Structure to design on (651 residues):
């Protein structure tokens, strides 16, 4: 998948310790009231984690010690000198990628866990990045990432754990969003108007526009806290995760657990969906294509999704690509383009009339394209429309959406299915190393 | 703009009452078709429908604006033709030409509803080419800057009125030392030396019978 941001799998390094890796069961307690086989559940657990900083990094390490099947780790930042004050790192890690350092530590602790790492913004990940995860955990330091992760979990039907803290009041807070339930709550349901504004805050000046550089600040909130509260937040998050996956005690979905260091009290409360939430509380159905997506037409994909190809409300979103309706060249009128262009490369197109390069313009560039504006392109293979390869295509109407993923293994035929714990599709990363997560 | 006389009167309460304007058949069809593919969260869908309706109502009463198409699928997008003088410099050392009509691509994003948004993010001038204006970019497809930041929730009708004022140069930013709003320094310098040509028009946006020349 050239030029398209995605997780990469971390391979095992040569083991430096002596003897065999420790078995989980050697230290796993028999939890009171646990009605499931804890060892089996943890062996099959797959968790995505967004943010591997002072809180997220510790969560990831805790998860690694549980020896799960797979971990996905995403963080765009690198360690700074100040990171030594709150992160569990050594000074030699300063300047290194948070995601990669944490991922390597996980792989060393649990070589049998498939560890996938992404050194970038969660907004840049493919739409189906967490489709194979059982649960998503986030500990970001900015509101746009919170909103983005929440929206993705809504679409993919994944429960979400959010660990945060407030250093000044020695407060650690864990919110468990039961997104898969009927009254699914997302992080944005709880946003105030100021938080909504910050979650979409961009800042650039016209001066920046002149030289082609846009200075994007994404509402970042630096973590100001002592390390102990960071680790407390991570520990509480793990506790909630264990209670959820092993069904321990009362259900934790749609709950807020908050510890205050001043009073030494933990308060729990319910989270309620906001009917006026600005995020889309809609779930995608997920299917696998039987052939490479680039070889399919959009009409084929609509039919595979069970949606009439000429429905007025039908729209398509090709992951990693924008639909270019028209562009400007030397011709007096905007030149029709009607092709997909990769967002990462922004390949220039040429005008057939004046032979000049066609510049894409914001007005005629769309991430999602309505079927009624596609015309004959609806029946052309995607590779003829400029799509070399893509992770997935979203086929949607106003009340239904199907995310069609590329085949996991071109040689293996999978029937379209919704992802559930019982009928989990083999992940695409299986191809890379030939191993199947246990 | 319209060959026939515009029969839709301006509401007594002014532009605040655009929602009370009864759309004619053509505009109603445009709105109905756009609403069919209106996507997003319910709050955003309602806002887009309302803003789209106001835009069509504004076109109906102004006699200066024609909406060619309206798209409410993701962002609100509208292709409009506006009767407004637009300064153009087709040849770098040639004379200034004033085009009587502008084709505009207007985009209203969800972020604009909730937060202050940069000025160049709303309007792109699709025609005429070679616009010679201090607040119109050259490199990025003739984006029109309406200010460094526009307030959160700004109504679309305000965007249209600001666009008219900017293109007719009734309001403009020419100060090279203040980069906010200046996207074409060469044009800003030229207009500073030719201020006698500003504004290009003094006509109000709404063509009422009392102020017709």
């Amino acid at each position: 998948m050239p030029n398209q941001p995605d997780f990469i799998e971390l391979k095992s390094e040569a083991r430096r310790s002596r003897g065999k890796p420790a078995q989980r069961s050697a230290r796993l307690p028999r939890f009171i009231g646990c009605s499931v086989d804890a060892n089996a559940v943890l062996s099959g657990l797959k968790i995505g984690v967004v943010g591997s900083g002072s809180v997220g990094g510790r969560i990831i390490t805790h998860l690694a010690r549980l020896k799960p099947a797979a971990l996905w780790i995403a963080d765009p930042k690198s360690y700074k000198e100040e990171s030594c004050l709150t992160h569990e790192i050594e000074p030699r890690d300063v300047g290194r990628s948070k995601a990669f350092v944490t991922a390597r530590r996980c792989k060393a602790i649990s070589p049998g866990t498939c560890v996938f790492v992404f050194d970038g913004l969660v907004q840049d990940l493919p739409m189906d990045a967490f489709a194979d995860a059982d649960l998503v955990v986030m500990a970001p330091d900015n509101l746009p990432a919170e909103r983005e992760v929440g929206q993705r979990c809504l679409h993919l039907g994944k429960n979400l754990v959010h660990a945060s803290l407030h250093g000044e009041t020695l407060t650690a807070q864990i919110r468990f969003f039961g997104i898969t339930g009927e009254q699914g709550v997302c992080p944005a349901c709880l946003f105030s108007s100021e938080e909504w504004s910050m979650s979409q805050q961009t800042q650039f000046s016209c001066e920046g526009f002149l030289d082609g550089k846009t200075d994007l600040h994404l509402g970042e909130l630096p973590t100001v806290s002592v390390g102990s509260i960071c680790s407390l937040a991570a520990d509480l998050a793990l506790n909630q995760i264990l209670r959820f996956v092993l069904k321990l005690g009362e259900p934790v979905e749609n709950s807020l657990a908050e510890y205050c260091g001043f009073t030494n009290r933990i308060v729990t409360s319910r989270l309620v969906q906001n009917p006026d939430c600005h995020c889309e509380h809609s779930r995608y159905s997920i299917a696998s294509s039987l052939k490479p997506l680039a070889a399919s037409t959009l009409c084929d994909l609509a039919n595979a999704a069970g949606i009439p190809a000429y429905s007025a409300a039908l729209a398509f979103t090709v992951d990693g690509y924008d639909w270019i309706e028209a562009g400007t060249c030397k011709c007096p009128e905007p030149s029709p383009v009607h092709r997909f262009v990769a967002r990462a490369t922004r390949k220039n197109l040429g005008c057939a009339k004046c032979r000049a390069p066609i510049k894409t313009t914001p007005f005629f560039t769309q991430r999602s394209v309505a079927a009624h504006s596609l015309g004959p392109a609806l029946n052309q293979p995607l590779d003829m429309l400029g799509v070399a390869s893509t992770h997935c295509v979203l086929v949607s109407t106003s009340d239904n959406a199907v995310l069609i993923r590329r085949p996991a293994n071109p040689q293996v035929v999978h029937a379209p299915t919704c992802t559930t714990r019982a009928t989990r599709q083999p992940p695409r990363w299986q191809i890379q190393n030939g191993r199947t997560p246990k | 703009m319209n060959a026939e006389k515009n029969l839709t009167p301006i509401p007594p309460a002014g532009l605040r009452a655009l929602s009370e304007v009864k759309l004619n058949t053509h505009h109603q069809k445009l709105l109905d078709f756009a609403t069919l593919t209106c996507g997003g969260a319910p709050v955003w869908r309602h806002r887009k429908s309302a803003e789209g309706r106001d835009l069509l109502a504004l076109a109906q009463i102004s006699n200066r604006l024609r909406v060619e198409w309206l798209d409410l699928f993701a962002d609100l997008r509208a292709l409009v033709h506006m009767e407004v003088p637009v300064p153009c410099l087709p040849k770098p050392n040639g004379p200034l030409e004033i085009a009587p009509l502008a084709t505009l691509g207007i985009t209203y994003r969800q972020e604009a509803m909730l937060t202050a948004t940069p000025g160049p993010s709303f309007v792109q001038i699709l025609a005429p080419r070679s616009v010679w204006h201090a607040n119109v970019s050259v490199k990025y497809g003739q984006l029109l800057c309406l200010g460094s930041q526009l307030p959160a929730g700004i109504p679309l009708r305000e965007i249209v009125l600001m666009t008219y004022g900017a293109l007719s140069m009734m309001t403009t930013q020419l100060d090279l030392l203040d980069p906010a709003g200046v996207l074409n320094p060469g044009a800003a310098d030229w207009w500073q030396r030719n201020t006698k040509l500003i504004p290009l028009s003094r006509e109000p946006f709404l063509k009422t019978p009392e102020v017709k020349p």
Observations:
- The first helix of chain A runs from residue 38 to 43.
